[in-house]
Structures are given as C-alpha cells and as structure tokens.
Design goal:
about 150 residues; 7-stranded mixed β-barrel; globular
Length: about 150
C-alpha cells in the first residue's frame, strides 16, 4: 500500500495492517479523519502522525515523558475498555507538538494521544487535570543561549 503525503512524498507500507492506527475517538478538530500512520525520521525525539485520508495533514508528536518526567495521569476505565488495553506495556502515549516560532514550541499535555500497540486502536483523551495545558512550553529557558555567541565584545 502506498500513502501519498504532502510533506514526505510517497510512503510505502509493507505491512499496512500493523502500520495503520485507527482513532476510535478522533483527534480534536479532525472528526472526519480516523486513519493514520506513525513514523520517525532517522533520529530524534519527534515523530510524525500522518493521516492516510488527507495527504496535507501531519502532526508532529513526542513522547511527553522524555521532556516532562513528572507527567502522569490516571486513565479512566472507559478508555481502557474501549481501546482494549490489557496492561501498561500495551499503551503508547504521545502529545501533539505545535511550533509557532523557534521560541514558541508547545505541546498539548491536556489531551494526550493514547495508542494501543497490540490492536492499533487510538484515541485523544482530554484529561480532567488543571495542572496540564494545551500549550505547555517545550522550550527550555537558558539552554544553549550562549552556544553561538561571539565572546569578543566590540
């Protein structure tokens, strides 16, 4: 199966039954799209969630635990049943990243994407937790600020 994408060109799926993720609860704002593929380029923390129904739609996503070690939530039993989750190892948690500028990169910790890696079902779940926002900053203040600065004053 070949998927056409605006961002990455043609993507050939070798085993599409194990590569297509079906969102049984759609990503907010995209209720008419339910089929996606997940992939990562060479290296790095960021992944891509590409719609196979809309070649223009690609989400940049990331494992939130890489950047936010204290990120945690209790999953409602409804989602455990609907997604067919049998144990913690079945679940892949990702959050959508939005890049507005180099200094304005946020991720949506309020509504993580939950994917069952055993049956390829997924859902975006809105958490009832005021601690998390839809625009949680991913930019670490001060990191690398002087990395490319000329140390000689003129």
């Amino acid at each position: 199966m070949i998927i056409n994408t605006k961002r990455f060109g043609e993507i050939k799926l070798i085993d599409h039954e194990k590569q297509i993720i079906t969102f049984i609860s759609p990503i907010l704002g995209f209720s008419n799209l339910s089929k996606y593929i997940l992939f990562q380029e060479e290296s790095g923390a960021f992944e891509y969630l590409q719609s196979i129904e809309d070649e223009d739609l690609t989400f940049v996503i990331v494992d939130p635990f890489i950047f936010f070690s204290d990120y945690e939530f209790q999953l409602d039993s409804h989602w455990i049943d609907v997604l067919g989750i049998e144990n913690d190892q079945d679940v892949c948690v990702r959050v959508i990243v939005t890049v507005r500028s180099a200094n304005d990169i946020t991720c949506n910790l309020k509504a993580p994407l939950l994917m069952n890696e055993q049956n390829y079902l997924a859902a975006q779940v809105v958490l009832d937790n005021r601690r998390y926002s839809t625009r949680h900053s991913l930019v670490v203040e001060g990191k690398g600020e002087s990395e490319h600065v000329d140390p000689i004053e003129k």
